[in-house]
Fold each of these.
Amino acid sequence: MKHLIGDKSFYKRLIAVALPIVVQQLITSSVQLVDNIMVGSLGELAIDSVAAVNQLYFIVILVTFGVLGGAGVYTAQYFGSKDFDKLKQTFRFKMIAALIIVFLSFIILSFFGSFFISLFTDNQEIISGGMSYLKIVRFSMIPWAFSVSISFTFREIGITKPLLRISLITILTNTLLNYLLIFGNFGFPQLGIEGAAIATLISRALEASLFVILAIKKGSVFNTKVKDMFKINPVVLKAIIIMALPLMLNEILWSTGQTVFIEAYSTRGENAYAAANITATISQLVFVIFGGMSTGIAVMVGNTLGENKLEQARANAKKLIFASVVTAFFMGVILFILSYFIIDIYNVLDETKAYAAFNIRINAIIIPIVAFNIAMYFTLRAGGDTRSTLIMDSGYMWVIQVPTIFLLSRVTDLPITMLFLIVQLLEIPKMGFAYARYKKGNWIRNLSNSEKLT
């Protein structure tokens, strides 16, 4: 048991790296909950309209995360090895890749947005409301590309406190603008869900501006001049692409798999669809630990591998995985308690509340298992074992979970609660496969010292 518990200095460093990210994401999740409630006060159709667009946005976000994650593996290790020239090249790759992804997504959603929304519902009011929201919020993807490229890089080099301050400013701005523009308070026009879209766009633009300023002031190890943006060594570029492709494919498959789950739940009616979205929003209040722990793993495993301290990286990984599971257990207890009263803040039908409460309690029970799997995923990724992450994450999802839920939603009359329960229970077998890939040790590699990158 001793090898699973770190000393005081270990947890001090973990808290310094992870806590600002946890607090940042907790604030974000809390405000998303407030936004959800504000939009929800307009009715369940409004919730479903915004949720359908956000599900599409979710896919764009995860695909971007996958590509940036491939570069981030090298960012963390180059920082550990103090190879700042190559670190700058990983940042340039992130900026270029993120802008390409969001530009393509902008074009696709501009022309085919209605079609994609109709995959979740055939209700014309929801489709119309979703398009009203999408036509504005799609522009927020462009400043977001700058923000995510810069914030990911700061995380990977262990600088997290400034990110919290920027998120706090952005979130407070978004909440205030939602209050003014959704309901028309203090003389502002009452714009409903279009007001929510405008608030998101303005707050994203502000966020990007603050991140650019932060990069100029405190990102000297990675920031770059515009004229040097395309200066990436072909060998480094090839290595990043090889690392990024499995992660990008994983995120595409995982996000589309989540979309299949949502579509399966929606077959049980609009109440079930709304309940699924409420479940996700409230559960995120405690799922924020995943963001903090993933950052902790990137820094305390990835940086250590880059320093060529391979055994220390292995020891750190064990302690971080254990800490993730223990923390998740206590967060699950909090979520279970919240499920008994937090649903009442929504202006939805009692049936919707009952579905959401059940699903949230399932999440509360299963969260330590999910935490274990996610910690395994980021540990494997920290050492560049992206093949294993692809197999254990989206590979498992599409071979086991997606076919199961798709068939059950079509050939049975099981309610959404049972469909949700089955999907979550299928996280348990994944633990064995994830642990087997971890034990093989293919992830214990110093990529920054690889002969292929010299």
Amino acid sequence: MSVWSDLRDRGFFQQCTDEAALEARSGQGQVTGYIGFDPTADSFHVGHLIPLMSLVHMQRGGHRPIALLGGGTAMIGDPTGKNEMRRMLTVEELERNAAALRGQLGSLLRFEGPGAAIMANNAEWLREWKYIDFLREIGVHFSVNRMLTFETFRARLETGLSFLEFNYPLLQSYDFLELHRRYDCLVQMGGDDQWANIISGVDLVRRVARAQVFGWTFPLLTTAAGQKMGKTERGAVWLDPGKTTPYEYYQYWVNIDDRDVPKCLALFTLLPMEQVRELARLKDEQIRQAKQVLAFEAAKIIHGEEEAKKAEGGAKALFGGGGAVEDVPTSTLALERLRGGLLLPDILHDFGLTKSKGEGRRLIEQGGVTINEEKVSDPLFKVLPEHAVDGAILLRLGKKRFHRVVVTA
């Protein structure tokens, strides 16, 4: 099975400019394909997993992936899916974010040895352009009338579209041309909301380089309930363990809707599709087993096998399946700080369990916090040394979010 057939089988396909021609070209040897990631944050999140995993499959299939960081395009900001202009980031912020994303990409792709992936940053070529030169060489190939038919722009015309953002497709298209010239890149991939930008790049390469290249898009990631996948009450589920711990990441997958399990096993694990289909047949109480496999495999890809085992062990310790309680997310608190009593909302905020003390108070009043499995409803509740059982306090937020506080002398 070709990598493109495998991607289609796993659910990484929405549309392609010419799938038959792409399959034929892939049969002749290694193909280079790219996906761009604008460094608008210092971590990827679950919403990036489909493009990230597609690059992983490309490399495993013997082809060459390019992970392109948008240090240039992010200075403008992609208007796709946005109701208003993105916040303008400084060069320093973009470079800091790009450095963090490079580290995460390095844990997913091989950038050395045979079949090495390529990491690039479009700041290298976009920031060097002079405006008039760019308009004369690249802008001449774009029709404003055609661009105004793009859904991205049509949706924004009512709320306001800046001329700055109107240039974004030109820059993204030029990226494809530059990568084609440098690395013989033949495929640009991305979410289906990027279709208009992608086919603009395909057309630019055809016009300027007289070459056939291809666009491939993925379906947008939503849950069976129609919501954006990767969102929780606390916000995005990040791949950075400092933002979303491996245990929380594991728990996110173990708690997804039963209806989403088959899709997520295919998209977010490297399990063979025969095993995915076998797990997808599990129903009712047995679906928990499939979710545990999904959570472990997904956590292993992002955080490594050791952290995935710890997360699995922590979940088993709390939910009656054995495991070590030490594997539950844990913080330490000095006994001295507890002697006079600490307000529970303060503790929740100090350990990053709530975004603010006010959020902690509201959560307590709504009955969403327990200490050692005893519900607390008073936002002025004070945690004292006697709340430490065997030297630790077990906090629970909601139904399944646990945090263990070890009290030290």
